[in-house]
Every structure is written in structure tokens, then in C-alpha cells.
Amino acid sequence: MWKPNQPGSPNPQTPEPIRPSTPASTFEAPSRPAAPSVSTPSAAAPSGEQATIGKSLIVKGELSGSESLYIDGKVEGAINLPGNRVTVGRNGQVAANILAREVVVLGKVRGNIQASDRVDIRSEGSLTGDVTAARISIEDGAFFKGGIDIRKPGAAETSKTSVSQPEPVAVDA
Hints:
By secondary structure, the protein is mainly β. The protein has a domain at 50-149. It contains no helices and 12 strands. Strands 1, 2, 3, 4, 5, 6, 7, 8, 9, 10, 11 and 12 form a 12-stranded parallel sheet that branches. It is elongated, with a radius of gyration of 28 Å.
């Protein structure tokens, strides 16, 4: 027979103490850093990995790597991220040649861009330099000064200075 006051048995008259719980929305596992949020749609990297250069950072030199990059600060030099996306944010100022799979310009870029897929210059963006890409998009209000070379995806790169001469054709009189 059950007796309520026995040691080791729960007392039905004493409720369980209420323990404060942390809401799931504010808890983050310490072993995994949070991914940076980006206000522009489609600016996140497909792999989920994206590095960010903040507003107050100034980078001089060559940037290379294997993840996408969001630039909101100043970068001078060269950016070499083939197979990844480079996004120049609204506050971003880049004075560099950029080599990437995809480039999105929301800020200011001074330099040539070579993209294996696409270059997207948004309405508030500014680009001064030549573009080599398979696709290019320039929104109304964007500033662009330079040349455009559209390449088919996967096509071997040829030199811009080499011009093929037509072969002479014999004409019967």
C-alpha cells in the first residue's frame, strides 16, 4: 500500500519547483558560430559559408580563399575567389581586380571583374572597370564605366588582343 509521507516517494501535496527555461529562439550552441545575415536577397553563399569584411575594416593586399565574401569595408589589391560569390555591400569600397564565380555590386568598385557566371550591378552600385562574364545585369540607376566581354560558360579564355584574320577566298572571274 502506498503511503504519501514515505522517503523516496513524491508528495502529491508539494508541487514540483518551477525551473526557469531559456526560450529556444535566444539559445545558441557555443560550438557553432551564427552565420552573418545579409539584407540582400540571394546574397548568401550556396554552401552556407560566407566571410564578412565589416564597415570599419580596411584590407590591403590579396584576398584568396574557398568561401564567398561580403565586403562592407574597404579593400585594395586583388580578390581571387574562383567558384564563389563576392558581394560588395552598400558601404563597400573596392579598388581591386576581382576574380569570382559571381559578383554583386551594391557599393563602389574600381577595377576589372572576371566572373565565370554572372555580374550583377544593383541600382545603388558603381563599377568603373572592364567586365568579363557569361551574364551581366545592370539595374536602372547603377553607374558603369568600362567594357563588357560576354563569354559562354566553360569556353576557353582567349586573348582580347588576338584577332583572327579571315582566310583569302578565291573568286572566279
